[in-house]
Amino acid sequence: MKFKSAIRMLAFSTAIAMTSIASASEDDAHAKAAGWNKGGGEQDAALHLTPNLENGLDVFEVCSACHLPEGWGTKEGTFPQLAGQHRKVLIKQLADIRALNRDNPTMYPFALPESIGDEQAIADVTEYIYKLKMNPDNGKGPDTSDMAKGEKLYKDNCVKCHGDIGQGDAEKFYPRLAGQHYNYMLRQFEWIRDGKRRNANPDMVEQIKGFSQQDMVDVINFVSRIPVPKEDVAPSKDYQNPDFD
């Protein structure tokens, strides 16, 4: 993993610098968005390829600039936790970003084929990420939030797709929520509710359209505190990915 520190610093610095450039260059392509989950293209190709974990690690070195070598992202929510996420979800989201069907101007330059490779790279890196152990100390919501109300909102609106313990559904491309950082989830929830995330599931948009800001805070706080099964988390919050030694 030589040069990893320099690569990560360069990747992070360039990502921030290119945010406005990428955003401007994407405008004309937004009209070509494919919608929620029509499949095809790189998504289907990557799903049917045999992953190579060694190459997945090499590709993930670029991702680690923001998502950290452990795949944990940042507790304050700027970058999501990727570790342990369903591989199909990771493939869909990465393919959507590359196809300009999900707005992410910071990540976009580093998701491109010239940065990480073709569909095989998607297959490889998503398998590597899926196998990473999760952060046992993810970012939580405010202690002042109404947990009982949040739990009821979750059971009434979210369990059908995301499961009783936030486990999601890989086969249906529904993401795992348990263990994700509160601030990241709240931001995505707001964007989905307000129509700012174009690859959102329309069923979810309809389901949450009446949520108030406090409703969102309460339910996401509850989700952020759902325990992750012990077998899926790292042994401690100080764990370091041995692949980056």
Could you give the topology of this structure?
Blueprint: H1 4-26, H2 41-47, H3 53-67, H4 87-98, H5 108-111, H6 113-116, H7 119-130, H8 147-157, H9 159-162, H10 182-193, H11 202-208, H12 213-224
Helix pairs in contact: 1-3, 2-4, 2-7, 3-7, 4-7, 8-12, 10-12
Number of domains: 2
**Helicity level, as a percent range?**
40-55%
Mean pLDDT: 89
Low-confidence region ranges: 1-34
- CA(first)-CA(last) distance: 7 Å
The CATH superfamily of the largest domain is identified as Cytochrome c-like domain
CATH architecture designation of the largest domain: Orthogonal Bundle
SSE order: HHHHHHHHHHHH
Look at the helices and sheets and give the structural class.
mainly alpha
Number of helices: 12
Briefly, what is this?
The chain is mainly alpha-helical and 245 residues long. It contains 12 helices and no strands.
